[in-house]
From TrEMBL:
Family annotation (PANTHER family): TRNA-DIHYDROURIDINE(20) SYNTHASE [NAD(P)+]-LIKE
SUPFAM superfamilies for the chain: FMN-linked oxidoreductases
Domain of life the protein comes from: Eukaryota
Organism: Linderina pennispora
Record-linked Pfam families: Dus (PF01207)
GO CC term (a single one): cytoplasm
Residue ranges, annotated region (Disordered): 337-379
Ranges for domain DUS-like FMN-binding: 20-281
UniProt protein name: FMN-linked oxidoreductase
Transmembrane segments: none
Any one GO molecular-function label of the UniProt entry: tRNA dihydrouridine synthase activity
InterPro entries linked: Aldolase_TIM, DUS-like_FMN-bd, tRNA-DUS-like
Length: 379
């Protein structure tokens, strides 16, 4: 049973903070570590559907320190001890029991859980998750209830606003009554697009309606100054940024943003050192680096593997000194020591990267895989 002092301490964690918002595909481990390095106080994982993680196997990669939750030879969720105390795991769920099973599975590696009640994407809506929960408050609150009562970590949720302010306030009061530690409000309706200005003015009434818990603003935070302005103008306890981070992850620096190329270098270094999935790495860096007319962008766009991507950014030395070993060990972990006992063989777009990592592709490093065996710890 969690005592009142602990619950107060949990609430205080969400006050006066600058946070990384949950971002589909972009908010993976390398980005979260980068944002923490630049000054983020807490970081949210992307939304992860409860059923995708509940029956995974937890594997620790001794080479990188990365903790991987693996299912059918795929990483469902990756994290690292360096972020544990600042990491909030965002759950996508439509059922209390499934949410609880997922939370119990990963709770040893995170410091809190957030229920996604605001995602307007069709995938979430048709599964009864995300913004669909806002129109089914009984289901929403039943998920929060079971998490609050059974998980000894702070539980929060993230919603949007309705067109009707009174309807929004009624939902907010019900949600807060479950005992959550904080509430994040994306200041747009489900049908509003990102290009439409976030309605910061709507937050004032919400903050006043639930004065005992932190309310976190989400929407249109693009600069370091915007974090303070959000608190000052709306009464929010904290603010989080998503698109501002994509534009430049150093948005958390009080000293100002760094040049885009410097941020790109730091991000790719994290990706290589953490052996991040290459497809995810390339997708993310192409979203982050917007100088589309530069030769760097052109070379990155044509990259087929980590070696190409590092070369495009002038980071070949990083690849040679770190990537060849780390990426090969990651491949060995996933292929030779398959957690389900079935051999996994690369095909299609993964074949070139697999060959390169093993030193068999044209121009690849001659890495002796049998001398570099990945070690796994099952827990």
């Amino acid at each position: 049973m969690v005592d009142d002092d602990t619950r107060k301490a949990w609430r205080d964690r969400y006050r006066n903070g600058n946070f990384l918002a949950p971002m589909v595909r972009l908010g993976t481990l390398p980005m979260r570590l980068l944002c923490l390095e630049y000054g983020a106080d807490l970081v949210w994982s992307p939304e992860i559907v409860d059923q995708s993680v509940a029956d995974t196997e937890r594997v620790v990669d001794e080479q990188t320190g990365v903790v991987r939750y693996i299912k059918n030879n795929r990483d469902m969720f990756t994290t690292h001890p360096n972020e544990k105390d600042k990491l909030i795991f965002q759950l996508g769920s439509a059922a209390p029991e499934s949410a609880l099973a997922a939370a119990k599975k990963v709770m040893q590696d995170v410091s809190g859980f957030d229920l996604n009640c605001g995602c307007p994407k069709q995938f979430s809506l048709q599964g009864g998750m995300g913004a669909a929960l806002m129109t089914d408050p009984d289901r929403l609150c039943s998920i929060l209830d079971i998490l609050v009562k059974n998980i000894d970590l702070p539980i929060t949720c993230k919603i949007r606003v309705f067109d009707d302010e009174e309807k929004t306030l009624a939902l907010v009061k019900r949600v807060v009554a479950t005992g959550i530690s904080a509430l994040t409000v994306h200041c747009r309706t489900k049908d509003m697009r990102p290009r439409e200005p976030a309605m910061w003015k709507r937050l004032d009434a919400i903050v006043k309606a639930v004065p005992d818990i932190p309310v976190i603003l989400n929407g249109d935070v693009f600069n370091y100054e915007d974090f303070d302005r959000a608190r000052r103008e709306t009464g929010a306890a904290s603010a989080m940024s998503a698109r501002g981070v994509v534009e430049n992850a150093s948005v958390f620096r009080s000293a100002g943003k760094l040049p885009a190329i410097e941020v790109a270098h730091a991000y790719i270094e994290n990706c290589v050192r953490m052996a991040n999935n290459y497809t995810n790495t390339k997708y993310s860096i192409m979203q982050m680096y917007t100088d589309t007319k530069s030769q760097v962008f052109v070379d990155m766009r044509s990259a087929k593997c980590y070696r190409d991507l590092c070369a495009a950014l002038g980071l070949s030395e990083l690849y040679e000194n770190v990537g060849t070993k780390v990426l090969t060990e990651r491949l060995d972990l996933n292929m030779n020591k398959n957690v389900r006992g079935k051999p996994a063989t690369p095909s299609g777009k993964n074949k070139r990267a697999a060959q390169e990592a093993r030193g068999k592709a044209p121009g690849a490093d001659n890495v002796q895989v049998d001398q570099i065996q990945a070690k796994r710890i099952k827990t």
